[in-house]
Design a protein that fits this description.
Elements: H1 9-23, H2 29-32, H3 36-40, H4 48-61, H5 65-71, E1 73-75, H6 82-92, E2 96-99, H7 108-118, E3 128-131, H8 149-153, H9 157-173, E4 178-183, H10 203-217, E5 222-228, E6 244-245, H11 249-255, H12 257-266, E7 270-273, E8 277-278, H13 290-299, E9 305-308, H14 311-316, H15 325-335, E10 340-341, H16 350-363, H17 369-386
Parallel strand pairs: 1-2, 1-10, 2-3, 3-4, 4-5, 5-7, 6-8, 7-9
Length: 399
């Protein structure tokens, strides 16, 4: 789907051998006596996603605690030196890298060369390479001149699907596997700076276009819905403050949950949690709130990767409890995030420090070991899918 094999068959073959060995192990004695009906029922073929998850479990099982901690961190440094960026990711085996404007060369070919470098050596499992490519106001790729945000809100849902199909194709050609690009916030009168970037001014309109955006994009890149539970409910710019609302959970379900539910139903692989405080639900921002991660999983049924918004934004809020991004990263993973993101204020050491902090929190019992394993497995599942190794017809049960 996204990346050529580039010699990765070796690690995939080794992993699949382990998977086959597990599945071929003799059944326990108590399982042998089955009914004749059960013994004749053909098991449903595994989907590509299920195969990737099984492969990811074996990969994560073989990781050390330190490697798992690095796998749940997405870092950032500036520059367009592909070798330097590759070393930055590889030195700590980070789960991903986010491209910002300073990382993007002037033309598509240059960007493809850069992501190819970040992708790693032949035979390695590639990191996730992400970008904020909403189009319009938030655009890292200058050659993406397609409609976005409020312009698409005035058009049909089909126009949104077409726009994100084209946008996703640009990302795929550039070697970008994750787009933090689908704004699922409702563009309300109180939504402030986010309103021009939203796909609808009411829950129904936004829901239709969010689902259409996912349908268009996800055949090219992994889709992300942001900013859960919804910037439209909380006035203020989360780049510098923590927006706050006293909206009840019932009001949220009716007015701001539908676009996220619609995007999840359409197959979005990631949801980005915002630094938004809903005081009637929790007194901490959603990005570090166990209750909001529970709602995301249990109420909306999301099974993919929950990624935080840039933790540097929490730092910029000036609130003392969020002054250390390492502590915020630990809080986020403990709360239920699978991937922590750091951009603002990040330097060459920040991502490694966050990984070290997460690893120490596991050793100290502040993060349950199973919680880190779960997060790392979800992230590695996307990395397996992004590698392109499961794109052959032999892994397609419908083929």
């Amino acid at each position: 789907m996204l990346r050529p094999d580039r010699g990765r068959s070796a690690w995939l073959a080794a992993t699949l051998i382990g998977l086959v060995a597990v599945s071929a192990a003799p059944a326990p004695a108590h399982a042998v006596a089955t009914t004749s009906l059960a013994s004749t029922v053909e098991p449903a073929p595994a989907s590509r996603e299920e195969i990737a998850a099984a492969v990811a479990e074996l990969i994560v099982d073989a990781m050390s605690a330190e490697e798992r901690a690095s796998a749940v961190v997405m870092g950032h440094v500036g520059g367009t030196d592909a070798g330097a960026l590759a070393r930055y990711v590889d030195d700590r085996d980070l789960g991903g890298f986010i491209l910002m404007g300073s990382n993007v060369p002037k033309d598509p070919r240059g960007l493809a060369r850069l992501t190819d470098g970040i992708d790693g050596e032949d035979g390695a499992l590639p990191p996730l390479v992400a970008v904020d490519q909403e189009g319009g106001v938030v655009s890292r790729l200058a050659w993406d001149d397609g409609p976005a945000g409020a312009e698409l809100a005035r058009r049909s849902p089909e126009s949104t699907r077409e726009a994100f199909d084209a946008r996703g194709a640009l990302l795929e050609a550039a070697g970008i596997s994750v787009n933090f690009g689908i704004v699922a916030d409702v563009g309300t009168a109180t939504s402030g700076f986010i309103r021009p970037r939203t796909l609808g001014g009411d829950p129904d309109a936004a829901s239709e276009r969010v689902a259409a955006a996912v349908a268009g994009e996800r055949q090219h890149a992994f889709s992300t819905l942001k900013h859960f539970p919804g910037h439209g409910a909380a006035p203020g710019d989360s780049h510098s403050v923590i927006p706050e609302t006293d909206m009840t959970l019932e009001e949220w379900r009716a007015e701001h949950a539908p676009p996220f539910a619609s995007g999840i139903e359409a197959g979005a692989e990631l949801v980005m949690t915002g630094h938004l405080r809903f005081t009637a639900v929790d007194d901490v921002p959603a990005s570090v709130s166990p209750e909001w991660y529970r709602i995301l999983r249990d109420d909306l049924g999301f099974e993919g990767v929950a990624v935080t918004d840039d933790l540097g934004m929490l730092l910029a809020s000036g609130e003392e409890r969020y002054a250390d991004p390492v502590d915020s990263a630990v809080d986020a993973i403990a709360a239920g995030a699978d991937l922590v993101l750091m951009v603002a204020g990040s330097n060459a050491r920040t991502a490694g420090d966050m990984a070290d902090g997460i690893g120490a929190a596991v050793r100290d019992g502040d993060i349950p070991e199973d919680r880190l394993r779960e997060a790392a497995t979800r992230v590695v599942t996307l990395r397996v899918l992004a590698s392109g190794l499961l794109d052959g017809p032999e892994f397609d049960p419908a083929g």
